[in-house]
Amino acid sequence: VRCWSNIPFITVPLSRTHGKSFAHRSELKHAKRIVVKLGSAVVTRGDECGLALGRLASIVEQVSMLQNQGREMMIVTSGAVAFGKQRLRHEILLSQSVRQALHSGQSQLKDMAIPVLEARACAAAGQSGLMALYEAMFTQYSICAAQILVTNLDFHDEQKRRNLNGTLHELLRMNIVPIINTNDAVVPPPEPNSDLQGVNVISVKDNDSLAARLAVEMKTDLLIVLSDVEGLFDSPPGSDDAKLIDIFYPGDQQSVTFGTKSRVGMGGMEAKVKAALWALQGGTSVVIANGTHPKISGHVITDIVEGKKVGTFFSEVKPAGPTVEQQGEMARTGGRNLAALQPEQRAEVIYRLADLLTDQREEILLANKKDLEEAENKGRLALPLLKRLSLSTSKLNSLAIGLRQIAASSQDSVGRVIRRTRIAKDLELEQVTVPIGVLLVIFESRPDCLPQVSALAIASGNGLLLKGGKEAAHSNQILHHLTQEALSTHGVKDAVQLVNTREEVEDLCRLDKLIDLIIPRGSSQLVRNIQKAAKGIPVMGHSEGICHVYVDTDASVEKVARIIRDSKCEYPAACNALETLLIHRDLLRTPLFDQIIDMLRVEQVKIHAGPKFASYLTFSPSEVKSLRTEYGDLECCIEVVDSVQEGIEHIHKYGSSHTDVIITENEKTAEFFLQHVDSACVFWNASTRFSDGYRFGLGAEVGISTSRIHARGPVGIEGLLTTKWLLRGDNHVVSDFSEHGSMKYLHESLPLPQRNNN
Q: Could you tell me which residue ranges the Aspartate/glutamate/uridylate kinase domain spans (predicted)?
């Protein structure tokens, strides 16, 4: 804990030897000394006269937060000219209005012209006001700021350089934020041909070069350059084919076309890139990002330091494989080629993958053994997750059987006609099934998920991006290799991609131009995080599996214990395991109730009492903290209800619309339950564990959806398809169908072509 102005704050442990820039974004959180360069477009208003106070306040808040974490923050700021221009214009208008009022009367005030203001005069008038503003804002966070004005000559004179360096170090030592600007009131024009003459020399001709020079001089870990564009594009921003470059490497300049400068300021993007590469060469990491966008400017600096994918990151380390953006493009192209194959060809790929799972089982199990050993040695996985991570010969055999089911059922999934309409004579409309596009499937601990999801994507003609957990890295690698080997049978290897880069899940969820649907497979926390992080991309899945079993008064004694045991104890970590047991009040203190309790005790299931159940007991189990709890272990809640209607109301109030069961011999009661419970899966006298794609005969599932749009319940091939409309005409135009036109709408339903059921 450090103290400043009598306010204690927690510091993050930061230690790094300067000399080499960070190789990956994920390492930026270790940055100790940071320079934030604020471009003119960030600091000034749209009219270029006056400051953007809201943005400036947000930037100060972020810098203060990082400073109070124990980092050493410096700001290189523009804005003095704009602030001065605002002040001088006000003074000139006031002066002219007084003179003209005295000599000419009020009628000529509207004809006043404001003379062109010289930039150096504006800077002189604006520097003190700009600094006063910074001081007032930083004071709100109990942080002191100090102003330093420099010119290019200060860096050419060795004594001045040492003085500047010493001043900055002393300010940082005292936890003061230095605010640096070029002294535009006296700055001379830049020296000719003095720019970028080596690591030790860069001409300070704008604040970009000043920030780069300062960053290297001060052995800074990170330089953040904020402008009015998202980062560096491969062509001028705004052009049709412009793509944001996530990571820029030295030597990539030839692949970039630079546009014009920003609306204000001295340096354009080309100047920023030159300064960034110079700083990178000097051992400082650089990120160029947008500091003006209203949706991200409030957290852009902290997001960059946290390693999130914001702007363009400059790195000297080029990864061996493709970037995730390139993988997304490959999956898109590969998916379209996959969809263009004949159904039998897609089925052949899946059959081949099924054969590889059994033929290469020894290599798969060896890779899986490595994952299990590493997980056990690190002790980072709970027992249920270790079970999910584990593969076995029987699991691989079951996988192969499931894949063959998918292949057999996929013959007419893509391109199936589901509606035909004759709009008019010789004008026929068809609605046909097509792939969704590119799927992103994020899964934890379960390597068996990879071939299952891959087979479903292949059958439905979708491109696929897979992001598995680190704990299953070896298993995922070999399973993906086998998947691509199977895809190579028909030359569509790129359709399924495994993301191995250091991409954070949150960053993947922002790739809305590359990904059409996200499917999370894992804990409820993972699903919630992805649903929160997804920006404009639909998420299919469920955040919780709070499944209920309701035991009715007419329940069979022989069936109750058996169904409850299977629902809770067969695989308690599964999302379709029983979590809340609802018992009709009339069954309390009956032999059937005692049988249920005895069975749960034998299976070592910990019981939590619901409020109503607890009220009936003298000595009750621990009362449940929440009736909306997914235990994922040998635990469950027991609650009492007065009727089937009350049971349904309880399920609707506390359930997650996943899977709910009634046990009864009364068919009328059962049908009432089946029709009125609003869940993805509703069962009568059957275990909750049947809620599964394989058990439903879908071959496998990409997950279980509790959404009410598109797909619901276990999602197989059908859930990965959408539709498009095909209209075949012969010189038809809408005007022919007008009131006085020659044609009439028929809208006749036509028979569908016969499905291939072989």
A: 32-290
CB 474 within 8 A of CB 370: yes
Backbone angles phi, psi at 325, to 5 degrees: -65, -40
Q: What is the pLDDT of residues 560-606, one digit of tens each?
A: 999 999 999 998 988 899 999 999 999 999 999 999 999 999 999 99
- SS3 string of 684-753? ECCCHHHCCCCCCCCCCCCEEECCCCCCCEEECCHHHEEEEEEEECCCCCHHHHCCCCCCCCCCEECCCC
pLDDT digits 0-9 by tens, 16-46: 555 688 988 989 999 999 999 998 888 887 7
CATH class assigned to 25-93+118-185+207-314: alpha beta
What confidence tier does 513 reach under pLDDT thresholds 50, 70, 90? confident
pLDDT on residue 263:
43
- At the topology level, CATH places domain 324-533 in Aldehyde Dehydrogenase; Chain A, domain 1 (3.40.605)
What is the rounded radius of gyration, in angstroms, for the C-alpha atoms of the chain?
33
Which residues pair with residue 547 across a beta bridge?
Answer: 578
Residue 155 and residue 524: Cα distance in Å, rounded?
56
Calpha distance 378→380 (Å, rounded): 5
* Residues β-bridged to residue 728: 428
- Nearest-10 Cα torsion for 347, 350, 354, 360: 130
DSSP 501-524: S---HHHHTT-TTT-SEEEEES-H
Q: Return all residues near 264 (Cβ < 8 A) that are at least 6 apart.
A: 40, 41, 44, 48, 82
Q: Are 515 and 440 in contact (CB under 8 A)?
A: yes
CA distances to 116, 661, 684 from 672, rounded to whole Å, are 82, 12, 11
pLDDT band of residue 196 (cuts 50, 70, 90) is very low
The letter for the amino acid at 291 is G
SS (H, E, C) 605-628: CEEEECHHHHHCCCCCCCECCCCC
Residue 200: predicted pLDDT:
41
Please list, residue by residue across 5-15, b when 16 or more beta carbons sit within 10 angstroms of its beta carbon and e when fewer do.
eeeeeeeeeee
Residue ranges with strand state E in 90-227: 145-150, 177-182, 222-227
The fourth-level CATH superfamily of domain 548-701 is Aldehyde Dehydrogenase; Chain A, domain 2 (3.40.309.10)
**For residue 3, what pLDDT is reported?**
38
pLDDT in tens, 151-184: 877 778 889 889 999 999 999 999 999 999 888 7
**Cα-to-chain-centroid distance, residue 150:** 41
Distance CA 310, CA 212 (A): 20
CA distance 474 to 371: 6
Contacts of 162 (CB under 8 A, 6+ apart): none
> Is residue 230 a contact partner of residue 244, using CB atoms and an 8 Å limit?
yes
Coil, helix or strand for 552?
Answer: coil
Single-letter amino acid code for the residue at 348: E
Q: Are strands 247-248 and 285-290 parallel, antiparallel or unpaired?
A: unpaired
Query: CA distances (Å), 301 to each of 41, 61, 276, 678, in order?
Result: 16, 10, 17, 45
Instruction: Delimit the domains of the chain by residue range.
Output: 25-93+118-185+207-314, 324-533, 548-701
| pLDDT(1) > 50 | no
Whether 324-533 shares its CATH topology with 548-701 is answered no
Instruction: Please indicate whether residue 9 or residue 491 has the higher confidence score (pLDDT).
Output: 491
Contacts of 645 (CB under 8 A, 6+ apart): none
Tell me the pTM: 0.77
Between CA 84 and CA 644 the distance in angstroms is 75
Tokens of 89: 């214009």
Cα 322 to the chain's mean position, in Å? Answer: 19
pLDDT tens figures, 411-454: 888 999 999 999 999 999 999 999 999 999 998 888 999 999 99
| Token pair 């000595």: residue | 619
